[in-house]
Design goal:
about 120 residues; two-stranded antiparallel sheet; 5 helices; globular
Length: about 120
Amino acid sequence: MTTTKTTDTTAAEAQEKEAEATATSDGYVTVPLQGYEVTKDVQVMLATKWRASAIRAANSGDIDRFMEMVLHEDDYETYLELDPDQGSIMQFTQDAAERSGEALGKSSGPSRSGKNTRRR
């Protein structure tokens, strides 16, 4: 009697494996970017490599600066030509994060202790 060993992979492990498969050797993933009339694939830096300054630019609404910092230098002009709307940019960043093995807004952050640490 032979037994077959099966492995269970969690969703996070599956995402990580997909990211490894889709990432190029230079740290970029290919993500579709929806423009006004057309969608084109662009190369974007792995979301885990986005600098804090790029995140700040996005959070402050400087999307051009953000895209300049995270897109491959060959694809920034494509972004400008596509002129995507806000919804397309949001979808793009979510897709980039997922293909990088991350999920935006899913960080649990530090856990709070159930024990009160304040002394009386």
